[in-house]
Amino acid sequence: ADLVTQLGVSPSASLEAMQGFRGGLNDGVWFLSDAEKGLELVLKLVRGHRVHEALLTEAENLAQIAAEHPQVSEDSAVSFPL
Hints:
Elements: H1 3-7, E1 14-17, E2 26-34, E3 39-46, H2 58-68
């Protein structure tokens, strides 16, 4: 199944690619908006492997942050992946 189906958004939802600089290691950033469900998401595509053995992947960095600061996913002032 495709990502839009997995997210359960309405058929009328819009998806826009971010223009300009998207960050150094991102492979793409998109904005998903679903007015019917009152949902707005930022989707970011990153590599699943290390670009250098000394550099953690984004997933590894986020897992480390979550382990060191478990409350981060509950903080409404922080955007943290689920």
